[in-house]
Specification:
Blueprint: E1 2-3, H1 14-18, E2 24-30, H2 41-60, E3 64-70, H3 73-83, E4 88-92, H4 99-109, E5 113-117, H5 126-135, H6 143-154, H7 195-207, H8 223-241, H9 261-266, H10 271-284, H11 290-314, H12 317-320, H13 333-336, H14 342-354, H15 359-373, H16 377-387, H17 393-404, H18 420-426, H19 447-458, H20 460-463, H21 470-482, H22 484-500
Parallel strand pairs: 1-4, 2-3, 4-5
The structure holds iron/sulfur cluster.
Length: 504
């Protein structure tokens, strides 16, 4: 009997795709996990409403759905096997660390039987990726290596001669323009939600100690809604996605981004169907530039699959990795949004509103600041996991702990940190900020600047020998030689004091 997890809501994958018509299907809506941390209201609404809609759709198709609401998976499984002691459940493997072992234990405790099968909601299989990783003479934990292999294997954006479309593998350099003031981002498709979602949203707000705004829910909860969002993205937003992929604008939360991560990670869309639709648009239309198509496909067949690969091979150590010994608490303004730093204020406000901000806000504003501040990586990981609608541990742990905070070194070749320079180049935040983007020290100097030099100075033993950091350390040398580093350290001490009083 198929057991469908809440992140596997796809009708054509795994045991459900092969179940006979009218078959019994199990879904367990477990609630205890949602009480353990202040999840974003929209994240819980998304998961629970998605499951409830999937239940109703399966019933309409003639399946006999056992939809069990329980505190824990253990309770739900015990209830199921009391009713159906002779059943054997078949579930697709969850990407979460140790979930297979845990599910086996729970089913055993419930005197039931369980078969765990391959998770078909990824493009690559664990077996094929592991075989490649074992056989390749390159480093299998470099994204570019992995991505090129995936392109070759799938044939996505490859010519008949086996070359990458356009001659280059990666058009990242063409994803970094800032739009002119006259540019208007394309409209966002927001699903029309029904009473079931409205009722689930109210229930979530009453039942759990949630974080975030509850007034605007913009995420698809059904496959039909997700397909409509995909169609809309490909039709109207994809052409402009490429050039402005990394740009950040005030009061423009969506830019031209796909906004499909929550749907793919919930199983409402299979990543391969998204890949195919985008590649088809690139092949058939004149208005889809290569940097747009490649930019999205790199995320889907490259980065997303690479994150699962890294997570599988680096857990459990990755979740507690902290090679830079960062031990500061996450500043309170990640929850309250109360800060004079415009880039952080606006980004936290975006997350509070919808459980979402795009990848550069995540990496170069939120994770950048936390890394410079010296936040313990596990704390930032927990924050992302609780607050983003598309975040699961297998997604956030490599993205936040490693890519965002350089806590392990498994695949990041250097920390992704910057002063105000990068944020100013890629956003319009600095113009409206209380702080001066060009000043390192003194009242109103941008905190990113002093923190950046302080970060390099205090982590010198680990980072100076990194050949990718050479230029940065030549600047550190001048600041150390001139004594400017002392003023910078004083400024950082002041910033930490201000943060304590909620005045940063
Ligand atoms: S000046 Fe500094 S704090 Fe203000 S928006 Fe720019 S980078 Fe952020």
């Amino acid at each position: 009997m198929p057991w469908i997890l809440g992140t596997q809501l796809h009708p054509d994958a795994g045991p459900l795709a092969r179940a006979p018509d009218g078959s019994r299907v199990l879904l367990i809506e477990a609630h205890d996990f949602a009480r353990r941390k202040p999840y974003h209201h929209d994240k819980l609404t998304l998961v629970f409403s998605g499951m409830r809609h999937f239940r109703d759709e399966l019933r309409e198709q003639g399946y006999t759905v056992e939809y069990i609401k329980a505190d824990t998976f253990g309770d739900g499984l015990a209830t199921y096997f009391e009713r159906y002691p002779d059943d054997e459940l078949v579930v697709m493997r969850s990407p979460s660390h140790r979930s297979a072992d845990r599910f086996r234990e729970l089913v055993e405790e419930a005197d039931g039987r369980l078969d765990i099968v391959q998770n078909e909601l990824f493009v690559g299989t664990r077996k094929a990726i592991d075989q490649w990783a074992n056989e390749t003479d390159k480093d299998p934990f470099r994204h570019e290596t992995f991505y090129r292999w995936m392109r070759t294997q799938t044939g996505v954006l490859m010519t008949d001669d086996g070359d990458p479309e356009g001659g280059e593998w990666n058009y990242d350099d063409d994803n970094q323009e800032f739009p002119p003031a006259s540019w208007e981002s394309p409209p966002v498709a927001v699903p029309e939600h029904d009473e079931l979602t409205a009722q689930t949203s109210r229930w979530v707000a009453d039942e759990f100690d949630v974080w975030g705004e509850t007034d605007e829910f913009v995420w698809p909860v059904t496959r039909a809604q997700a397909q409509a969002k995909l169609d809309h993205f490909v039709e109207t937003r994809l052409p402009e996605f490429g050039p402005y992929q990394d740009a950040m604008r005030s009061d423009d939360w969506a830019m031209a981004h796909a906004l499909l991560g929550s749907s793919v990670n919930l199983g409402l869309l299979h990543p391969w169907e998204v890949v195919q639709q985008i590649e088809q648009a690139y092949d058939e239309r004149d208005d889809v530039p290569l940097n747009s198509a490649e930019g999205v496909l790199r995320q889907l067949i490259g980065w997303r699959e690479f994150m699962r690969h890294v997570y599988r091979h680096s857990m459990p150590d990755l979740s507690s990795a902290n090679q830079l010994d960062a031990d500061h608490d996450l500043p309170e303004f990640y929850w309250s949004g109360e800060t004079n730093m415009e880039c952080l204020r606006q980004t936290v406000e975006d997350v509070e509103q919808r459980g979402y901000s795009h990848h550069i806000q995540r990496l170069m504003v939120l994770a950048n600041f936390a890394t410079l501040w010296g936040v313990e990586p596990a704390q930032l990981n927990e924050w992302f996991h609780a607050t983003y609608v598309d975040a699961y541990h297998w997604v956030t742990t490599p993205n936040v702990v490693e890519m965002g905070q350089y806590a392990d070194g498994v695949f990041a070749s250097k920390p992704y940190v910057s002063s105000a320079n990068y944020i100013d180049k890629m956003s319009d935040y600095c113009g409206d900020c209380y702080y001066y983007k060009t000043k390192d020290t003194g009242e109103k100097a941008c905190p990113f600047n002093a923190l950046y030099w302080d970060f390099l100075d205090r982590n010198e033993d680990q980072l100076r020998s990194n050949h990718r950091m050479g230029l940065m350390y030549s600047h550190v040398d001048s600041k150390q030689d001139s004594g400017a580093i002392d003023e910078i350290k004083d400024r950082v001490a002041t910033l930490r004091e201000k943060a304590e009083y909620g005045e940063l």
